[in-house]
Amino acid sequence: MSDKHGERDAAFQIAPVPRISVQGFCESQDVAQVIENAATDRRMSKAHVKVHMGGIAAAVEAYRTAPTPNLIVLETYADRTVLMEQLDSLAEFCDSGTKVMVIGHENDIALYRELTARGVSDYVVAPLDVLTFIGQVSHLYNGPHAEVIGKLIAVVGAKGGVGASTICHNLAWSISRQLECQTVIVDLDLPFGTAGLDFNQDPPQGVADAVFSPERLDTAFVDRLLSKCSDTLSILAAPATVERLYDLQEQAFDATLDILRSTTPCSILDVPHQWSAWTKRVLVAADEVVLVASPDLANLRNAKTLMDALRAQRVNDPAPRLVLNMVGVPRRPEIAIPEFAKAIEVEPVGVVPFEPKLFGTAANNGQMLAEVEAGSKIVEALDDIARQLMGRVVVRRAKKTLLSPLLDHFVRKKAS
Hints:
It contains 18 helices and 13 strands.
């Protein structure tokens, strides 16, 4: 379990690479494959990457007549003398501002110091994996102490009507209240979003203003569009009208989410149940994906389809989280939770039972579940999921027994 948490934490701490051009010149297929795999990772989606074979000699020949990119990655097996001569030859053709990363096969601090003294930006020892390579590139362009300020968590339903928005909004409430983390809910369901309703608000501006006014988009503009729900929670509401068509481009939300990632510790994306270029892009780019489903056959099929698609697109990230919602509807035949989990190869991080009175009251009053029934087991379950999403330790409450008062008294007496 700790390995999975470490994998998620390591992936999250890598800041996205900016819009740069990268060209690699490799001597081994292993390193070439690492760079090619890194080019398909979500953290390098803005970078333009090309990989060539031939090492430093090929780079020197290539740049005799061509401009150099933002970053040149060079793999070498050469000894120190030959390497320095090759780098001196390459330096004659490097444009101002070009960074050079050398991937070598010798773990030598003296070599590292000599290379950096000659202007090489970084020296990395092979073998290396995809996340290590991306992390080194990110380090070069985001600064030595740069960390991802904000975490993007995308919540989507496997099927319409499974309560994904309700789960999304209550998780955001829990993160903002229980974990005291500044949180923004971004309602991406422009024609039918319910974030405003769920928080009993009707803001005049929201996420559509950001999408349709790209020329005005900056930190201050996005801040003005936020509707404050509490000291730690705000919403970027959807217009929830059909007065216009929302045929959005694939990159429609990129700039808005980049701003939120750089300014807000946690942004929860309420993604509508649809499959388009922009929804796929949002899900692939998120730091965490939460898939909400109910235990029936249509949900199982859709959940598996989405899981498989996202696994293929997020090969360097853990699988999306699964939340089973509305479990135990009276007289409804359901797929057993173990069978559901086995079919999609993911254990649920939370199971939310069917409680129509609690959910209905909250929805009709424009409240969160914790405001209606703070001590509910459902609220406790959502708090646990929120902690997992934010990498916090899940506190399991010990069950009370008939002997609990006696044991508590004994512990207090011993401590005194």
